[in-house]
Amino acid sequence: MSGTIIRFENVTKQFDQDPAVLKDVSFEIERGKFYTLLGPSGCGKTTILRLIAGFTNPSKGKIYFDGKLVNNVEANKRQVNTVFQDYALFPHLNVFENVAFGLRIKKMKKEDIEKKVSEALRFVNLVGYEKRQMKEMSGGQRQRVAIARAIVNEPEVILLDEPLSALDLKLRTEMQYELRELQRRLGITFIFVTHDQEEALAMSDEIFVLNKGKIEQSGTPTDIYDEPINRFVADFIGESNIVSGKMLTDFQVEFVGKEFECVDQGFDTDETVEIVIRPEDLEITSPEQGKLQVTVDSQLFRGVHYEICCLDEAGNEWLVHSTKKAVVGDPIGLHFEPEAIHVMRLGETEEEFDKRLEAYGEERNATN
Ligand SMILES: Nc1ncnc2c1ncn2[C@@H]1O[C@H](COP(=O)(O)OP(=O)(O)OP(=O)(O)O)[C@@H](O)[C@H]1O
Ligand SMILES: [Mg+2]
Q1: Pick from 5, 170, 253, 347: CA 20 to 30 A from residue 82's CA?
Q2: Which residue has the least CA distance to atom 7 on ligand 1?
Q3: What pLDDT shows up at residue 368?
Q4: Nearest to 334 by CA among 347, 314, 346, 320
Q5: DSSP per-residue codes, 141-163
Q6: What is the reported pLDDT for 149?
Q7: pLDDT category of residue 363 using cuts at 50, 70 and 90
Q8: Do residues 28 and 65 touch, judged by C-beta distance below 8 A?
Q9: Looking at ligand 1, which residue's alpha carbon is closest to its atom 30?
């Protein structure tokens, strides 16, 4: 089954007299996809999950589940299960009983409980661990118990609040694969919270980038990486070189005092804009061949590539990712293609941004 499963319509959440922590937030969640809420600490990620789960109510706006208004539907009546950051497992119960807990509360028959718990444990690869106590389980295993406890209830949506943040890097990467694979096999909608942009890019069908209680941009990982709507998103998703510039005419932009060909259009003449160029889109050349002339200021080896920091004459920093080593102090050139220049309009809303991209998508097709 496809279609919208959750819809937020102009949802605002305010605690007491404080400023609102969510401001007029609207979005749709489609069934069976993997969504990620990404944003810095305090931006409202957990609050969105709590609103979906029904642990708290919106101050304004409407929340729909399967097309039905659920603003006043209690948490235990919603088809949602949450995996909390600390997993909230019962330390005095073994693995089997932790997973069975919700089913026992529902007074399910003993044979059914056994069948369902075994199935859930098989799904998360924990067959044989039924009698283990929680203190005998590793961090990754505990996390899987928490997921088994969520899926055993066969919810339509699973909410995961930074479930991997306590794990070390290697286990974390393993669990990213496992979680994504599990979501595909189950076909359940996952809404995953993280403040780690790489994790969000690796795992999601759709990402919502949040900042100060608002969604700055939503889209697929490649949409958001390739076409960040503004400085915040460009900065938050991956490393970027951001400078201010001026759109001279369609396909012609000026920054750091030079003119460059670009692929953007639909701006006002001489409109002030911001320019993003990703470090991996900059190529080191001789100073004569480069579109920009810079001096190598410092460099770090990152395992696969060198991270080279350069300075131009105006003192702007240019970060370059290159497999070639540079020499600190050397004058070099930087080459980039017109497509590598991403032009962002100041203060553009997501709706305006989408319209502008759509408009030139159509024009491009028309000229082809
Ligand atoms: N019960 C509450 N009463 C008052 N303020 C709250 C309450 N819960 C959350 N807040 C505030 O709402 C804002 C958003 O909190 P939220 O927990 O949603 O952030 P978050 O994005 O999950 O952050 P983190 O990444 O640190 O977990 C914060 O400023 C927080 O202090
Ligand atoms: Mg949180």
Answers
A1: 170
A2: 15
A3: 38
A4: 320
A5: HHHHHHHHHHHTT--SEEEEEST
A6: 93
A7: low
A8: no
A9: 42
Strand pairing report for 189-194 and 34-38: parallel
* Residue 194, token pair as written in the block: 């993280």
Return all residues near 276 (Cβ < 8 A) that are at least 6 apart: 228, 234, 240, 241, 242, 341, 342, 344
Q: Which architecture characterizes domain 241-367 according to CATH?
A: Beta Barrel (2.40)
Domain ranges of the chain: 4-226, 241-367
- The topology under which CATH files domain 4-226 is Rossmann fold (3.40.50)
Q: Taking 90 as the threshold, does the pLDDT of residue 53 lie above it? A: yes
Closest ligand 1 atom, residue 195 Cα: 25
Q: Which two tokens stand for residue 13?
A: 């959440």
Q: Is the CB of 218 under 6 A from ligand 1?
A: no
Q: Which two tokens stand for residue 229?
A: 């709507």
Instruction: Output phi, psi for 123, to 5 deg.
Output: -60, -40
DSSP H helical ranges for the chain: 45-53, 95-105, 110-123, 139-151, 169-186, 197-203, 221-226, 231-236, 350-367
* pLDDT given for residue 114 in this prediction: 96
Name the token pair of 67.
């097309």
Instruction: Give the number of other CB atoms < 10 A from CB of residue 169.
Output: 7
